[in-house]
Design goal:
Distance between the termini: 31 Å
CATH superfamily of the largest domain: Nucleotide-binding domain of ferredoxin-NADP reductase (FNR) module
Organism: Billgrantia zhangzhouensis
Domain 2Fe-2S ferredoxin-type: 3-97
InterPro entries: 2Fe-2S_ferredoxin-like_sf, 2Fe-2S_ferredoxin-type, 2Fe2S_fd_BS, 4Fe4S_Fe-S-bd, BenC-like_FAD_NAD-bd, Beta-grasp_dom_sf, Cbr1-like_FAD-bd_dom, FAD-bd_FR_type
Domain FAD-binding FR-type: 104-209
Structural class: alpha/beta
Domain 4Fe-4S ferredoxin-type: 30-62
Oligomer: single chain
CATH topology of the largest domain: Rossmann fold
Helix content: 10-25%
Strand order of the largest sheet: 11-10-13-8-9-12
Radius of gyration: 21 Å
CATH architecture of the largest domain: 3-Layer(aba) Sandwich
Number of strands: 19
Number of domains: 3
Low-confidence stretches: 132-136, 340-349
Mean pLDDT: 89
Shape: globular
Number of helices: 6
CATH class of the largest domain: Alpha Beta
Strand content: 25-35%
């Protein structure tokens, strides 16, 4: 028996390691050549302190209070030298990945499909290269995270959130059609099956946490992508909490993947979605922005986890709406994307 541990570093890089039954996270990391901070390895110094965001584990009673107080333990703080997982876990490591002599993973793949979903968007499907990936090296990520994809014929990359399920050999992405955009030009022009691509990642702090209360998802345009990945995860693992999605676009044609959302509504016991179109000339039954259709009951008097992904104007409008209405969700996670910026800035402003 082994467990998958996601190590989320301060610089946004995520590394996945396997932890054997009875093994500490620190020992498992070192076995994977990830040098987590450590001085004593005996629960005395506190150097290896991190935060476990989700999962079950045992810390034992061998550490001293100066290394980890009862108050810190109650807040989810852990000592990786003492932490023995009993399930898959997500651990926040408060240093950069480079300081732990690790870094972002690199995965080769080949174009499987390119589909024009609308005037505004493409779907890119990539087969991860079996020549390089064996059973133990599948590209794993947390639903909601992203990778950088090198644009064929250039040295530049663009950042996109997965819309597929973690751990599969085929990865999919929803990509906005940006006028004169480098990736958009490739997808609308020379892209063909078997083109070689390189993916680096996964990265990002925008991902699905353990579902312990109702969930409200707010998607704008191709910001739907990470929610498709999250919903696939919920379908695979089961979910007994109500999950609602508000999905807003500019014009009717930009609404995509409605058949998949219908399938999730059939498969998940308490999932429903609502679409909104901003275009005043639209005949869509719900016009305006997602903030115009955020019914009070969706917020469960604050006992709700809110996830928001979309272009900056949408994210800013939702943040302003929450402030004006005095809305304070139990947890709030959002990510802005700006496709026209440089690669290192193109996808991210994520807040958890």
């Amino acid at each position: 028996m082994s467990y998958t541990i996601a190590l989320n570093f301060e610089d946004g890089v995520t590394r996945f390691i396997s932890c054997k039954e009875g093994e500490t996270v620190l020992d498992a990391a070192y076995r994977h050549k990830v040098n987590l901070p450590m001085d004593c390895s005996d629960g005395v110094c506190g150097t290896c302190k991190g935060t476990c965001e989700q999962g079950e584990f045992d810390l034992g009673d061998e550490y001293i209070d100066e290394a980890l107080s009862d108050e810190e333990a109650a807040e989810g703080k852990v000592l990786t030298c003492q932490m023995v997982p009993s399930s898959d876990c997500v651990v926040q490591v408060p240093v950069a990945s480079t300081l732990c002599k690790t870094g972002v993973g690199e995965f080769p793949g080949r174009v499987a499909e390119v589909e024009r979903l609308s005037e505004d968007s493409f779907e890119l499907v990539i087969d991860l290269d079996k020549e390089y990936l064996d059973e133990g090296e599948r590209l794993t990520f947390l639903p909601g995270q992203y990778v950088n994809i090198q644009v064929p014929g250039s040295d530049e990359t663009r950042s996109y959130s997965f819309s597929s399920l973690p751990g599969e050999r085929r990865a999919s992405f929803l990509i906005r059609n940006v006028p004169n955009g480098l990736m958009s030009g490739y997808l609308s022009g020379p892209a063909k099956p078997e083109d070689v691509l390189t993916l680096t990642g996964p990265m990002g702090s925008f991902y699905l946490r353990e579902v312990e209360r109702p969930v409200l998802m707010l998607a704008g345009g191709t910001g739907l992508a990470p929610f498709l990945s999250m919903l696939r995860q919920l379908q695979a693992r089961g979910c007994d909490q109500p999950v609602r999605l508000l999905y807003g676009v500019n014009v009717d044609d930009h609404l995509v993947k409605l058949d998949e959302l219908d399938a999730f509504a059939e498969a998940l016991p308490d999932f429903a979605y609502t679409t909104v179109v901003a275009d005043a000339a639209s005949e869509h039954p719900r016009k305006g922005y997602v903030t115009h259709h955020m019914a009070t009951e969706l917020l469960h008097d604050g006992e709700v986890d809110v996830y928001l992904c979309g272009p900056p104007p949408m994210v800013d409008a939702v943040l302003a709406h929450f402030r004006e209405q005095g809305i304070s969700p139990a947890s709030f996670h959002y990510e802005k994307f700006t496709p026209s910026l440089a690669p290192e800035e193109a996808k991210k402003e994520a807040v958890a």
